[in-house]
Amino acid sequence: MTSADRVTLIDAPDEAGRTTATLVASLAARLATLYAVSGAAAVGSMVAGFAAIGREASRTAEGAKLRRALERGRVAQNGDALWTTLRIRQWASLAPAAPLLDQLRNDMALLLAPNLQETLALLPIPGEPAAGKDEGEEPSSEFLDCIVGMWAFSREMVQAIEALAQPTRDDGPFEKQPGDAPPTGSLLR
Length: 189
Description:
Blueprint: H1 20-33, H2 39-57, H3 61-72, H4 74-85, H5 88-94, H6 100-112, H7 116-120, H8 143-165
Helix pairs in contact: 1-6, 2-5, 2-8, 3-8, 6-8
């Protein structure tokens, strides 16, 4: 396993450290919130979260390179047209950005927790409200920010899942089993 394949789990120095109980409480609070918010608010928060990730990722060499490539093609022009005409920018910019990478990392940490079963037996665990932190005004959520954020999020997710599978992964050749049907369909139809 290389250093790029490792899951990074770092507690912020000015906040309480994560425990299995706080990670379960965070997940439980996110799930409980779904009963109290509209689908539009939940999805808007996710779109704003991807846009926030995209702004950050666009500051890296690899993210900036991807963003420039997207800007040069039809993707950016058509995406901006959709976001303007359908008011996606306005909608996503009004929603608070969900901390999607933090949530992903916390959920992956739960899968590795040695005491998860014992902690789940202690439920209900009260969640800590995410609201109340005044971070200032959110920047406008743009199409390219969102698409680059989705790219960065998916890369992090793939790396985390591969790191979880690494201890038991068999990297030998894949052999087709008798009766296996070939994949059908196309991603781009």
